[in-house]
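Supplementary Methods, section 5.1.

A reviewer requested that the exact input to the structure prediction be made available. We therefore reproduce it here, unchanged from the version used in the analyses.
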Amino acid sequence: MIRWVILLCVLNGILLFAGDIKVVKYAHQADIKVFVAEYQHQAELAVFLVEYSHQARDYDERWYYVEYAHQADVKGFFVEYAHQADLIIYFVNYAHQAKWLKPSKFKGEIH
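The structure derived from this sequence is encoded token-by-token as follows.
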């Protein structure tokens, strides 16, 4: 349920995107397809949403949503099922909880 609320907020522009990330409407526009796991142990990356762009610099695990694609380091698309995703994430409540949980080809590529 939470992932749907986040997805709806993002798609409606309420949240802005890590390094800096732009959520796109269609999968073919994305650099990366992302699935939001219900539990942290299912994820490859624990993500913390920051309030300001400079807080996300040089951190894959800290995301800042931007409004326009040209502002983004990465364009992402949220998928409905884990098997469709390039990366499985879990949103955490505190910055110190954000980290890579499993090896991934995207490590160092998101910021």
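The mean pLDDT is 84. These observations are discussed further in the main text.
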